[in-house]
């Protein structure tokens, strides 16, 4: 059975494994918010990398390099809640934001089959934005930010114009799957096959 749990920790109210309803099921999300019952703007991101996998654990080499080169990353943060490509809630929540992290379909705690960058996944993200924009802790303004995968899906969902999406901040992402992901300048790119290997027969 899928269970949501809430705790107050490190100055935040954290809702773990919230089920966001989508048209044919749900997606799993973690919600980090101020302890009081106010309404706040919502930075939201969805990706396949595991909303609950700590950056330092899942990507140890990259984490160590980041902290070595930019120790200020840990100013006002323990790094405990930082995950790959998402904003750090320990830095954002005290500034008056609710951070929502969503596992895309078929990854992490979200059931279903993986279908990266598909219209189906984009519709899931639309539903997630609209859910976040109508929660009692939300001002109704949802923004998105992120790099790479979390940038590309911003371009895709923004094209659907979800009513509660107020802003996007994508960087180092692609807005044209063919020209930017698979065929740079018409030349086949090896990025996608190395990033997402095909299953063995």
How would you describe this structure to a colleague?
This protein is of the alpha/beta class and 201 residues long. It has one domain (5-195): 3-Layer(aba) Sandwich (Rossmann fold). Helix content is 27%, strand content 29%. It has seven helices and nine strands; from the N terminus they run E-E-E-E-H-H-H-E-H-E-H-E-H-E-E-H. It has a seven-stranded mixed sheet. A hairpin with a 2-residue loop joins strand 1 and strand 2. Helix 4 crosses helix 5. The model has no long low-confidence stretch (mean pLDDT 90).
Which features characterize this protein?
about 200 residues, alpha/beta, Rossmann fold, 7-stranded mixed β-sheet, two-stranded antiparallel ribbon, about 25% helix, globular
Q: Return the CATH topology.
A: Rossmann fold
CATH hierarchy class name: Alpha Beta
First-to-last CA distance: 32 Å
Count of separate structural domains: 1
State mean pLDDT (0 to 100 scale).
90
Beta content comes to 25-35%
Tell me the total number of β-strands.
Answer: 9
Structural class based on helices, strands and sheet pairing: alpha/beta
The level of helicity is: 25-40%
Shape: globular
């Amino acid at each position: 059975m899928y269970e949501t749990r809430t705790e107050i920790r490190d100055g935040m109210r954290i809702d773990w494994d919230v089920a966001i309803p989508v048209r044919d099921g749900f997606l799993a999300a973690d919600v980090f918010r101020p302890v009081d019952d106010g309404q706040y703007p919502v930075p939201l991101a969805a990706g396949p990398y595991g909303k609950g996998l700590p950056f330092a654990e899942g990507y140890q080499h990259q984490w160590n390099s980041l902290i070595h080169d930019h120790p200020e990353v840990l100013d006002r943060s323990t790094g405990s809640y930082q995950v790959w490509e998402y904003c750090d809630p320990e830095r954002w929540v005290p500034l008056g934001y609710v951070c929502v992290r969503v596992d895309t379909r078929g990854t992490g705690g979200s059931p279903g089959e993986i279908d990266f960058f598909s219209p189906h996944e984009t519709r899931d993200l639309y539903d997630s934005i609209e859910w976040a924009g109508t929660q009692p802790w939300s001002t109704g303004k949802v923004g998105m930010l992120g790099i790479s995968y979390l940038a590309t899906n911003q371009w895709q969902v923004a094209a659907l114009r979800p009513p509660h999406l107020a802003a996007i901040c994508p960087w180092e992402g692609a807005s044209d799957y063919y020209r930017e992901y698979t065929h740079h300048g018409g030349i086949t790119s090896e990025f996608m096959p190395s990033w997402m290997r095909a299953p063995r027969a």
